[in-house]
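Holo model, zinc ion. Inputs:
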Amino acid sequence: MRKIKIPWDFIKSTVIVLFISCLGALSFHLAGYSFFISFLLFFVFQYIIFSFLGNLINNFFIQKTKQKELDVLEPLSTILECAYCNTKNVMTFLPDQNERLQFECSSCKKTNSVNIQFVVARTTEPIQTQTPIKVDLKDEN
Ligand SMILES: [Zn+2]
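Output:
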């Protein structure tokens, strides 16, 4: 048996919208306006406002998460050799740190400073093969 998922959030919001529309239409009706037309107006107006607000809220949260991703840069870990004794040290640092990157060697306890270099490499491309030269195998003698 297939289970049908009931969209409770949608039903709930629709009931609320209908209820507010009824209340508004009733008050307009008491003031002498048409119940049906004021009901429709209230209904449409609420949907416009809710979709507009929904978009605004969504955009706000998207911006927030983007900023959070930028704020929390993942620390990088690397293995570096000590400049004095060549002992391999595991170093973790944040890429957005403005201070000088340094680490203390685990073996000789001397302070090493770290210089970050960017290396550029060509992307690999398939080798262009020439079409094979046709060799005539016919005996010329
Ligand atoms: Zn060392």
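The longest strand covers residues 76-81. The first helix runs from residue 8 to 30.
Archived with the compound record.
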